[in-house]
Design a protein that fits this description.
The protein is of the alpha+beta class. It has a domain of about 90 residues. About 35% of the residues lie in helices and about 20% in strands. The strands form three sheets. A three-stranded antiparallel β-sheet has the order 3-2-7. Helix 2 crosses helix 3. The radius of gyration is 35 Å and the shape is elongated.
Length: about 160
């Protein structure tokens, strides 16, 4: 008799444990954090932004004659504005003039960003981008090509060989 009572208690305890686990599993599922949506530059990704910055810098390096690599850190704010760090990221040994120009170009991208979203709310996000700046040689001026008037030349016919 004791044996039957012990088995019944064990079965009841197992059922109760299963119910507790199921409830805790439901709590865990409902408490999951939604995967954040990253900030997007003109609908693209961070690599698209890097290409855009390098293209903008290529237009300016002819005038500034600066070249090198700058690692720039900035924040994309919830409203799409940009906050650029005052110093190069990761102890970059960049030319101060070059960093100032990269900083200005990155800051000019404000309004081209859509904010990051987490749990349905727009949030600030910090980003770090390496930018390579190469000096582009100014194109050589195109020389004017003189046009030569074609003159008609009379072609002398040669006698046929037999």
């Amino acid at each position: 008799m004791k044996r039957i009572v012990m088995i019944l208690l064990a079965v009841v305890a197992m059922c109760a444990a299963v119910e507790v686990r199921a409830e805790s599993a439901e709590v865990a599922v409902s408490g999951q954090i939604e995967q954040p949506q990253m900030a997007a530059f003109q609908g693209g990704n961070l690599n698209d932004f890097k290409v855009w910055v390098e293209a903008e810098m290529a237009k300016r390096t002819v005038a500034t004659k600066c070249e090198g690599r700058v690692i720039v850190a900035f924040k994309v704010m919830a409203d799409g504005s940009i906050e650029v760090s005052d110093k190069p990221a990761m102890n970059s040994q960049a030319d101060p003039e070059l960093f100032a120009e990269v900083r200005r170009v990155v800051a000019s991208s404000a309004g081209m960003w859509s904010a990051a979203v987490q749990n349905g709310k727009k949030v600030n996000v910090s980003l770090v981008v390496p930018v390579n700046c190469e000096r582009v040689k100014a194109p050589k001026p195109v020389k004017k090509v003189k046009t030569v008037k074609k003159t008609e030349k009379k072609v002398r016919k040669l006698p046929a060989l037999n």
